[in-house]
Write a structure and sequence with these properties.
The chain is of the alpha/beta class. The chain contains seven helices and seven strands; from the N terminus they run E-H-E-E-H-E-H-E-H-E-H-H-E-H. It has one domain (about 5-270): 3-Layer(aba) Sandwich (Rossmann fold), CATH 3.40.50.720. Bound molecules: NADP nicotinamide-adenine-dinucleotide phosphate. NADP nicotinamide-adenine-dinucleotide phosphate binds next to helix 1 and helix 3. NADP nicotinamide-adenine-dinucleotide phosphate binds near residues 37, 59, 107 and 190.
Amino acid sequence: MTNQRVVLITGASSGIGKATVEKFARQGWRVAATMRDPARAPAFDAPIDNIAVIALDVTKSDTITAAFADIAQRWGAIDIVINNAGYGLVGPFEMTSDQDIRRQIETNVFGVMAVTRAALPAMRARKSGMIIFVASMGGRLTFPYYSIYHATKWAVEGFSESLRFELMPWNIGVKIIEPGAIHTEFYGRSESGPRDAALGAYKSHFNRIYTRMSSVGKRAPGPELVADAIWCAATDGSSKIRYTPNAGLILLLRRLFGDRLFARGVKRALRV
Ligand SMILES: NC(=O)c1ccc[n+]([C@@H]2O[C@H](COP(=O)([O-])OP(=O)(O)OC[C@H]3O[C@@H](n4cnc5c(N)ncnc54)[C@H](OP(=O)(O)O)[C@@H]3O)[C@@H](O)[C@H]2O)c1
């Protein structure tokens, strides 16, 4: 066995996950590109020998167990786990079904926790490792009609920031990535939530705001920007916890403006 480093990435079938697979594989890492349906794996633009496509649905514990066992057998220890899988539920809270809300929390929160817990025993035993959480700028500020998505990303922020202290004695690092708008399937096939008649009384207000927000997503930079930030978080050797690709300015304004001024800015920008 060589000393090539090993990274596991969830949600590697598209967007930020795919770009991160390519980034690490090009740098010579062994990459476990995990995804719900390996039969739909994309063509990775990176040395294919460094990549293993492995089934993992973050909401299905048997697939998590099997994926970790598979990687242990192929390559031994995992150096870094990147919790990237997730999607956005968008729509008026009142009109969103319990089923949709539960699925969002199952994926974006419980899924992240389950993958993290699966990674810890081996990292703790080796006193070495890192967990990287792809949260969002939406874990530190909010926009309209993403209430459940924001709830999940704020949960990930609190979870990971606290966990960081617990893992310090074991030399396991925690990093949080907070991307701003990035052009991926997040604004396409991954998005879910009520539409048309199901929007009820919110329909015209939602449609107006949603049109503005999704147009920002479609004009945003590509996922390589986030892959670069993840690479930096993984390798810079610093104690810095948060990385904010395409979100530095807005997060700074959020901090400087405080609640009232920031809310006024969002209201004006989105014509709420
Ligand atoms: N794009 C943005 O503007 C933005 C901004 C901030 C944060 N983020 C975060 O970045 C992460 C990646 O999103 P993206 O922008 O790259 O969008 P994306 O292109 O839609 O990728 C999302 C990935 O998550 C996977 N996924 C969804 N549910 C899953 C499950 N139960 N188990 C395993 N994988 C699952 C999808 O797999 P399938 O192919 O099977 O559907 C897909 O590979 C998400 O956590 C998102 O919240 C995105």
